[in-house]
């Protein structure tokens, strides 16, 4: 009898790493899940509250639109403008969770075509594609 | 179908990880702090390994790090001859405590009012955190550099380890109560308050002693030199890691080796169980922290149990994205596992390439 094939335990995602930009400790980061206890603070006007939630909704909306744009890019030809006036084109594959890297294939560079590559987002100034 | 352990690698450090500590369980979950030779200790969410922030300020390798029970404060011990106390919510430095040599170990009392430090100057120091300007109380007696110092017996006593001895001190009288001598260098020490157990590692031995009397309870031998070991909160298992890069899990009662895992690319320096016992974390010379499940296959944190017969991909919002998860810093590539006739396609990890 053959030994059964073991399956690695699936994971939802990898642990998030440092963002490389700041030292972290985002104010609403780790304390977000629990509703903060605000025993005495009732003077917060309703108008202020709704402006904040409006902004939050707008941000969520923009974020969703950006993520959908990334999904729409999958498999398409994208032109990237990098630093020092460099332009490259490639087929877009995916980004990682923090959108710190773009996974691309058939990257056309001034020194040849790279079959698979990772473009660092910090190196990219802008990118454009036709859906 | 048998499940294989999937460790979660936490990247971010650029040098060996030499110490790690969990907080207690707080209303926000529990947290993990890692000490690194790159001088930048990091705070992470304990159950997922997600990075929360980096404590910036030390000018040398950080040898020891700890969190207080409710994870509101952190303390670090460094080669720049200082110990620092931090606000663990904002990341701000609260206090810098100057020492006369490399500081190796820090520990808060249960009420976070006092900090115990120890290091190469062979002195134990007790700082009153409510009076940071006051001189610390000093306990001398060690004849070699102190590697680890811990409060025990409800902060009424202190346990400290140097190269070849472990000593028990009375806090009130600041005098030595008892000591243990070893032939080999003591590599680590862990104190378990419930049951007053002390876990000491030296050579290939993992030894358990009473924290009150220092009398030996039992000990196990591992296949390689062990640098750190940790006992599960329910005292069913212990985990240990050392020079052969592997992590070992033993049954505490029988001493039987239950599991062993390869994965790290360098010696393991520290291993600790989480406060709920559901996972354990290891820190290595390879600069990474890894989280391991105590019960392999259980749904917890980022690990997701998949029932046999269910296609994992049907749960993802866009099945096109699945093949391309890349985590740059540690270059782990998740590829589709070639589906066998009766297993489901799920993530599998290919060998890592260290950046």
Automatic annotation (TrEMBL), chain A:
Gene3D superfamilies with a match to the protein in the record: 2.30.30.100
Domain of life: Eukaryota
GO cellular component, one term: Gemini of Cajal bodies
GO BP annotations listed: spliceosomal snRNP assembly
Domain Sm: 65-131
Residues of the SUZ-C domain: 1-29
Entry-linked InterPro entries: Sm (IPR047575), SMN_gemin7 (IPR020338), SUZ-C (IPR024642)
Region (Disordered): 18-37
UniProt-annotated location(s): Cytoplasm; Nucleus, Gem; Nucleus, Nucleoplasm
GO molecular function, one term: RNA binding
UniProt keyword list: Acetylation, Cytoplasm, mRNA processing, mRNA splicing, Nucleus
The protein's assembly and partners: Part of the core SMN complex that contains SMN1, GEMIN2/SIP1, DDX20/GEMIN3, GEMIN4, GEMIN5, GEMIN6, GEMIN7, GEMIN8 and STRAP/UNRIP. Part of the SMN-Sm complex that contains SMN1, GEMIN2/SIP1, DDX20/GEMIN3, GEMIN4, GEMIN5, GEMIN6, GEMIN7, GEMIN8, STRAP/UNRIP and the Sm proteins SNRPB, SNRPD1, SNRPD2, SNRPD3, SNRPE, SNRPF and SNRPG. Interacts with GEMIN6; the interaction is direct. Interacts with STRAP/UNRIP; the interaction is direct. Interacts with GEMIN8; the interaction is direct. Interacts with SNRPB, SNRPD2, SNRPD3 and SNRPE; the interaction is direct.
Role noted for this protein: The SMN complex catalyzes the assembly of small nuclear ribonucleoproteins (snRNPs), the building blocks of the spliceosome, and thereby plays an important role in the splicing of cellular pre-mRNAs. Most spliceosomal snRNPs contain a common set of Sm proteins SNRPB, SNRPD1, SNRPD2, SNRPD3, SNRPE, SNRPF and SNRPG that assemble in a heptameric protein ring on the Sm site of the small nuclear RNA to form the core snRNP (Sm core).
Family according to the record: Belongs to the gemin-7 family.
Record-given protein name: Gem-associated protein 7
Organism: Prolemur simus (Greater bamboo lemur)
TrEMBL record, chain B:
GO BP: alternative mRNA splicing, via spliceosome; maintenance of gastrointestinal epithelium; negative regulation of transcription by RNA polymerase II; negative regulation of transforming growth factor beta receptor signaling pathway; neuron differentiation; retinoic acid catabolic process; retinoic acid receptor signaling pathway; spliceosomal snRNP assembly
Record's keyword terms, sorted: mRNA processing, mRNA splicing, Repeat, WD repeat
Keyword Repeat (UniProt): yes
Origin: domain of life: Eukaryota
GO molecular function, one term: U2 snRNP binding
PROSITE patterns: WD_REPEATS_2 (PS50082), WD_REPEATS_REGION (PS50294)
Record bears the keyword Repeat: yes
Ranges: WD repeats: 55-96, 96-137, 139-179, 261-293
One cellular-component annotation, GO: cytosol
InterPro entries: WD40/YVTN_repeat-like_dom_sf (IPR015943), WD40_repeat_dom_sf (IPR036322), WD40_rpt (IPR001680)
Family according to the record: Belongs to the WD repeat STRAP family.
PANTHER family, sorted: EUKARYOTIC TRANSLATION INITIATION FACTOR 3 SUBUNIT I, SERINE-THREONINE KINASE RECEPTOR-ASSOCIATED PROTEIN
Designated name of the protein: Serine-threonine kinase receptor-associated protein
Gene name linked to the record: STRAP
